[in-house]
Amino acid sequence: MEPTDFFKTAELLKTYVEEAHLRTSIGRSYYAAFLYFREYLKSLGLEKKKNPTQGVHIFVIQSLGFSNEPEGSKASKFLHDLRQLRTDADYRLDKKFSQNDADDAFARAKATIDDYTRSITPQREAELIRQATVHAKQNQWI
User: How many domains would you assign to the chain?
Assistant: First the structure.
């Protein structure tokens, strides 16, 4: 399965009016982007080895952000914001979510991936991985 396959589920769920569907759509949009970047970093040799299931969201977000490469910083910020939206959708039952919220999460998640893949160069990608690896070692993630 490809991480971006979750976009199909998110797209389907955001067409419903029930709030549970909209909240789940937001979550699937986030996970499509998060898992895309987790697998992307892994394909470049950067994977959280120590306690791989604990803190993996922070690992991915910080690996992109602490690289000081503009593409990574932008993707990191968008993933961070999407994660917060997903967390709110999952846990803040007092907060209302609309179809616009689900549409926005879907569009932002797709744009995060598209912007990154369109603008990253091989040289910046190599530097991103180099800097992210240093950061990951300092945090004892690898």
Answer: 1
